[in-house]
Amino acid sequence: MYIGPDSLALVHHLHASMLQIEERRHEMQSSPRRILDVCTGSGVQALATLAMLELLNNFDAQPDLAVAVDVNKRALRFTSFNARLNGIDDKIITISGDLLSGKAYPKSSTSDDICLVEEILSKLTQDETTKKSFQHKHGHEQQPKFDIFLANPPFIPVPPERSDHAAFSLRDENSNCDTPNTPRYGLFSSGGASGEDCLRAIIQMGPSLLRTDGGLMVVVSEFMNPPPLSSTYQKAVNEDDSLTTKMGEWWGSQLTSNSDGTGILFTNEFAIRSDIYAQRRAVTNDQEDMNVWSNHLHRSGIHSVSPGLLFIQTSNSRSEPRGKGLQLKHYFVPKTKYGSIWTPHNFVAVE
Q: For the residues of 228-297, what is the DSSP string, one character each?
């Protein structure tokens, strides 16, 4: 199971923040910690976070719990294997779930269908350690939720003719995968035509799954049309920035949302132009395939793409039903001799 620089970047950047996060947790007396890892793949993000928490608490805290979700059952088998390999298989629960099935969150309060959000929370409630700890602190009426929500969703804006549906042919043993123009983007990489299908679902699910008093969401992804470079690379962009505004609208779009959030979006100092991006994603030396990608990005209004990291922390909004929603700022990460935001062990980017 492939572990890419995006997963490693999330782990490295989260590790740099974990001590401060845990200090806040101890102030709120929140133990054990509950971790959700969506689009888990190999499980590296959930497993690394469990290891960080264990080390920070000198192995003497109540055992933490991670719930790992993926549409690919093979990925979940790898997650379970890796957990056992590291001696923490008793701390991992796996769930097979599809963010894009139309059943990720409740359609209405009267619906009888079990959605993915409800299934995830139900698994959390069933864990006896978590249930007893939560009820002891908060009473029996409240539903336990997650302290940390991690996600590394598929993010590539794949043209329809190179989409998941076409990529299913790659699983046919009789197909010739060396044929030029063979679709190469499947479930693990395609974020839909916009590149944002899974990202949108994850941000929409956030308020329903995170605790409202300091829950943390960390998402690693490529982001479409990041704000242009300002005169000062670390200067926050205007509040009307379309990307951060759009993510704020996703956060508040579900009827079950009842928490505010503040966050920071980090992207590279220099985004990748759409023509360069099309060249990188197309089949090498295939002008026809590159034209397919270039035309698709142009039709979709995608002029630039940047790797990035999104951090959101919740805060309770008891005074108003919907509160202020999600307030996001944007910061650029400068390119240095050590690389950019996803470059492994780039301490400058982490700082």
A: PP-SSTTPPPPTT-HHHHHHHHHHT-STT--EEEEEEEEEESSPEEHHHHHHHHSPTT-HHHHHHHHHHH
Q: Residue 22 and residue 18: Cα distance in Å, rounded? A: 6
Rg (CA), the chain: 20
Quickly count: other Cβ atoms within 10 Å of residue 302's Cβ: 19
Whether 117 contacts 105, CB under 8 Å? yes
**Backbone angles phi and psi of 276, in degrees to 5:** -70, -40
Task: Say which residue, 159 or 232, is predicted with more confidence.
Answer: 159
Q: Are 268 and 346 in contact (CB under 8 A)?
A: no
Phi-psi region for residue 30, left (φ > 0), alpha (ψ -120 to 50) or beta?
beta
Paired sense of beta strands 216-224 and 92-96, if any: unpaired
Which residue carries 């620089």 as its tokens?
5
The pLDDT, as a whole number, for residue 63 is 72
Residues 6+ apart with CB under 8 A from 260: 314, 315, 316, 317, 323, 324, 325, 326, 327
137-156 pLDDT per residue, tens: 544 446 689 999 999 999 99
d(CA 84, CA 105): 31
In DSSP terms, 190 is beta-bridged to 156
As a whole number of angstroms, the distance between CA 151 and CA 202 comes to 8
- Whether this model's pTM surpasses 0.90: no
Q: Are 44 and 7 in contact (CB under 8 A)?
A: yes
CA 17 to chain centre: 17
Instruction: Give φ, ψ of 314 to 5 degrees.
Output: -85, 155
Helices (H), 5-145: 5-27, 44-56, 73-85, 116-126, 128-138
Which structure tokens are listed for 153?
């969703």
Query: Which residue from 115, 97, 95, 329 is spatially nearest to 208, judged by alpha carbons?
Result: 115
Q: Which token pair is 34?
A: 């509950």
| 284, 185 Cβ separation under 8 angstroms | no
